[in-house]
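hey so u asked for the seq, here:
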Amino acid sequence: MKKFFMKILFESVLFLFIFFLPLHAGTVNNDIAMAFDLPSLVKSVRFPEPVYFCGSRVPLHEQQVKERLEKEMLLALWDRAQVVLWIKRSTKYFPHIEKILKQQGLPDDLKYISVIESGLRPHAGSSRGAVGFWQFLRSTGRHYGLRVDSKIDQRRNLFNSTKAACSYFQKLYKKFESWPLAAAAYNMGENGLAKAIKGQKLKEYYSLYLPLETQRYFLKAVAAKLIMENNEKYGFKFSKEDFYPESVFDRVNIDSPTEIPLTVIAESANTCFKEIKDMNPEIRGSYLCKGNNSILIPKGCAKGFKKRFSVLLKKWRVKNVKKFHLVKKGENLSIIAKKYNISLASILMWNNLAIRSTIHPGDRVIITSQ
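ran it, structure tokens below
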């Protein structure tokens, strides 16, 4: 145990030595950083060429802008593990985001907004209730056509959420006529930004006094772009096999009058429940909701899927014949459970409901598992 703690202590001291001393100790410690394949942090914040984002030139001749970008670069580079994951995930998701941005006629650089918003994680969430790749709030997501309810949360779907983000950015750019301002509005809200512009009588992102998070927001995206497009310059050297493979899949449409267990879909696609959930993060719970659904399955598994699915679904329905109660006015789940002498927990499980779920007259409630 003592050797273990000594090892941890040594590695921690070495880590601090490598990262802090190049800022102060000159050539000797820069050589040490190079020996560990790490660039000097001082050199990391030197920008020899004009820097652009979405075709907008970052005014680095203004000292306060230069300082702000240097800060974002240093903070990003400090968390090297995070940057590694950004770069590795980018090869998985960027091809799909880039395609949608191109189709919508938007700048390719906007893909870096998804990086600083979610780290390219479908299940990323914030304390304010924002969710998914582009961190939509529930209300904003619904406004831009995303389904967000107890069964489906399309904020987690790469394709739906990216298209929604494109629609939002198109509106913001049309309103503010500037990509830095459009990004600021995406972060703080268009009404808040419009109010700040009117109150300060300025329409230039770098000169506006905005919430501190918003003042950093655009330059965080610029920093992400600089690092990810020049990763070797900043000490991130990858071989081809280091990158995560591009997300590939087959898409199938399933139209059903009732909910279907994802286990049936997984078996029909010759895969497991987890892979179906991972490929379709918008699906909440263990069932695919009734109606028409377009879902992703592993590449190559669409061939023969419908035939396998038809057979397996029929078997499941025969095995899981259920009795239903037709909800009447004034009834709730507790009343129904008591009427049939079954537990409320059983009704919730059989119907894939939560304790706060509401039912309405005319709904059918499963009252037996067989």
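Residues 21-36 have pLDDT under 50 and may be disordered. The two ends are 55 Å apart (CA to CA).
lmk if thats what u needed
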